[in-house]
């Protein structure tokens, strides 16, 4: 997602900032900007799209001698990817770059607007710079104004701020989003939201902790803890390689992306949850007018997310919903009527089969919606409406965080539609929204769980196959669990509805058949349990996932007790992802680039 860089020193500042931003490109972004302060003059450049556009805009700018600068790459979450919404955000005499979410921005914006402040962007970030200037006009020094500003911010942030009266200083703060301060020799200071931006530049760094803040010049870094006590700056050498920096210490991108799900889900939900309704700013108000049916189409993991949606849309919005694999749909001469909303789901927005179904539906005059992770992708450009999943760039070929964000968007969509069609009580929508709010913590990986899965994985390396089984939405989750395992371990795995095992597959049951049983407490527990017992009676090796004890299992992964089955869904999803990954690692496979697979399949 977004990236931050900063520099104080005498080297060419523009090049250092843009070079640092380039190292953060892998996180994904759709606009970028820098501001440089030199000889009491600010030079600001912003551009939509890739860094090359920013470089072109700033091509005539050169710095000589001492200067300070801050830069940012933005992945749009709050407002469209436009130049006005790109960082740095501008006040009368100050500039700010920010990663994270200012949760109380609306409240702050209202009170600043009341005082006559004019906002030019749709972002939450802009309040920071205006709030700072509001305090600056009342208190003595920029640093006091900065402290007063931080005291009013709620939410997550990593931010850098520069202001005209202190032209040798960058003010910084970190709370919830990463920020690193680095130095080289005695007279250069760097900032970055990740190691990657600092490699080859800073020699030693401080990884800021939550609540820390301060200010830096070329020679000194003044650091405070959350209780405003001065801290000793403790530097560590920066010795990582570029690739390991991008992986942020994780062994594989897939692992990083599994761990990242907590933060990306917070982004997915941001601005879309109200007390008892779901708000999608991006949806045209008439999208559902005249619609009696929904048809979903997708491939691979996105297809599994679409399958989950069929349960949720029919259950919540009482609308007939069906799902199809895109490559099948294309050639089976489907009946399409204009009262059907055609929804495609795609991480990349480029998958050829899915894109073709979208073109077919458009040609037949259907209204179309895409749920996608990549703004400006072919599908987003083509569909009548789009909802972005905000997962950030996904590098691992085996999709993880993209799936999590797709399911959460589809769940929100089902509640949005339930509200419009009045098929659920507002109180029930409100209850589910409160469950949605817990997702970032539900998917947080606990060390003990990961360690258990790592140990357990050694018992599941051989055998003649895996069955992942579940009912209701846990059936598509079982399919997704089996797909993850197949993709990266090359072991044979199938997903099955647990009630269907007795109609054939149970013939395979023996100790070398591994059954991964999804036993949520709040969805058809007894029914699923009976199906698992049938397999256990035939000596299949069972690994169960449940918050409840299950004595017929050979291995039991105890999940937390949640109030709602969808929270159980998300916790089990993470466990299945880690389980596959640990098996693949033990088998010595390339987890991020499994054989024969591609991340984006743009051929039929
Ligand atoms: C490929 C990838 C899968 C992905 C599928 C659909 O097969 O390997 O991980 O789920 O394409 O991709 P999409 O970008 O349309 O979600």
| Beta-strand content estimate | 15-25%
Could you please say which CATH topology of the largest domain applies here?
A: Glutamine Phosphoribosylpyrophosphate, subunit 1, domain 1
Strand arrangement across the biggest beta sheet: 3-2-4-1-10-9-11-15
CATH superfamily of the largest domain: Aminohydrolase, N-terminal nucleophile (Ntn) domain
**How many E-type strands?**
25
Identify the overall geometry. globular
Number of domains: 3
The largest β sheet comes out as: 8 strands, antiparallel
Number of helices: 18
Structure in a nutshell:
The protein has 604 residues and is an alpha/beta fold.
Helices and strands in order:
Blueprint: E1 3-9, H1 13-23, E2 31-38, E3 41-48, H2 51-57, E4 67-74, E5 89-90, E6 94-102, H3 105-114, H4 126-136, H5 142-152, E7 155-163, E8 170-175, E9 180-184, E10 188-192, E11 204-207, E12 213-216, E13 221-224, E14 230-231, E15 236-237, H6 242-246, H7 253-259, H8 261-269, E16 293-298, H9 300-317, E17 320-325, H10 326-329, E18 340-346, H11 352-363, E19 367-372, H12 378-382, E20 385-388, H13 401-421, H14 426-442, H15 447-457, E21 465-470, H16 474-489, E22 493-497, E23 513-518, H17 525-537, E24 541-546, E25 555-558, H18 565-586
Helix pairs in contact: 3-4, 4-5, 8-13, 8-14, 9-13, 9-16, 13-14, 14-18, 15-18, 16-18
The structure holds 6-O-phosphono-alpha-D-glucopyranose.
């Amino acid at each position: 997602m977004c990236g931050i860089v900063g520099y104080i020193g005498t080297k060419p500042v523009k090049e250092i900032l843009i070079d640092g931003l380039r190292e953060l490109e892998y996180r994904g972004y759709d606009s970028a900007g820098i501001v440089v302060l030199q000889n009491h003059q600010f030079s600001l450049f912003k551009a939509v799209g890739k860094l090359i556009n920013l470089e072109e805009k700033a091509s005539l700018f050169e710095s000589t001698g001492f200067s300070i600068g801050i830069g940012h790459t933005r992945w749009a979450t709050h407002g469209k990817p436009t130049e006005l919404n790109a960082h740095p955000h501008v006040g009368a005499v100050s500039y700010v770059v920010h990663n994270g979410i200012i949760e109380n921005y609306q409240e702050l914006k209202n009170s600043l607007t009341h005082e006559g402040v004019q906002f030019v962007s749709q972002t939450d970030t802009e309040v920071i710079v205006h709030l700072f200037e509001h305090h600056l006009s009342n208190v003595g020094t920029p640093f006091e104004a900065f402290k007063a500003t931080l005291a009013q911010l709620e939410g997550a942030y990593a931010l850098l701020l520069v202001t005209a009266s202190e032209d040798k200083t960058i003010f910084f703060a970190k709370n919830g989003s990463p920020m690193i301060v680095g130095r080289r020799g005695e007279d250069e200071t760097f900032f970055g939201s990740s190691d990657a931006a600092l490699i080859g530049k800073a020699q030693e760094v401080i990884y800021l902790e939550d609540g820390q803040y301060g200010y830096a010049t070329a020679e000194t870094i003044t650091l405070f803890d959350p209780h405003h006590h001065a801290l000793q700056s403790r530097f560590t050498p920066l010795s990582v390689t570029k690739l390991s920096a991008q992986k942020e210490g994780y062994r594989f991108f897939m692992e990083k992306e599994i761990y990242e799900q907590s933060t990306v889900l917070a982004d997915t939900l941001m601005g879309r949850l109200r007390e008892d309704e779901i708000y999608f700013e991006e949806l045209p108000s008439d999208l559902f007018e005249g619609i009696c049916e929904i048809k979903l189409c997708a491939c691979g993991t996105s297809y599994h997310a679409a399958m989950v949606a069929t349960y949720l849309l029919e259950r919540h919005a009482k609308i007939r919903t069906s799902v199809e694999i895109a490559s099948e749909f294309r050639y089976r001469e489907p009946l399409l009527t204009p009262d059907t909303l055609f929804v495609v789901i795609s991480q990349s927005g480029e998958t050829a089969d899915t894109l073709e179904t979208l073109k077919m539906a458009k040609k037949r005059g259907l209204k179309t919606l895409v749920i996608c992770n990549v703004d400006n992708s072919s599908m987003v450009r083509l569909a009548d409406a789009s909802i972005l999943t905000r997962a950030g760039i996904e590098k691992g070929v085996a999709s993880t965080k993209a799936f999590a964000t797709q399911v959460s968007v589809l769940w929100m969509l089902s509640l949005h539609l339930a509200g419009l069609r009045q098929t659920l009580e507002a109180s029930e929508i409100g209850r589910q929204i409160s469950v949605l709010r817990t997702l970032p913590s539900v998917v947080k990986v606990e060390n003990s769980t990961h360690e258990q899965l790592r140990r357990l994985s050694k018992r599941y390396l051989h055998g003649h196959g895996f069955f992942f089984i579940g009912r209701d939405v846990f059936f598509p989750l079982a399919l997704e669990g089996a797909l993850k395992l197949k993709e990266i371990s090359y072991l044979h795995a199938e997903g099955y509805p647990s009630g269907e095992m007795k109609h054939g597959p149970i013939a395979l049951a023996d100790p070398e058949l591994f059954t991964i049983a999804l036993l949520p407490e709040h969805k058809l527990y007894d029914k699923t349990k009976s199906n698992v017992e049938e397999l256990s009676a035939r000596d299949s090796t069972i690994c169960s996932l449940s918050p409840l004890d299950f004595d017929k299992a050979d291995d039991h992964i105890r999940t937390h007790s949640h109030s709602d089955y969808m929270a159980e869904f998300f916790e089990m999803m993470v466990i299945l992802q880690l389980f596959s990954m640990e098996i693949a690692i033990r088998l010595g496979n390339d987890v991020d680039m499994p054989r024969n697979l591609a991340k984006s399949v743009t051929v039929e």
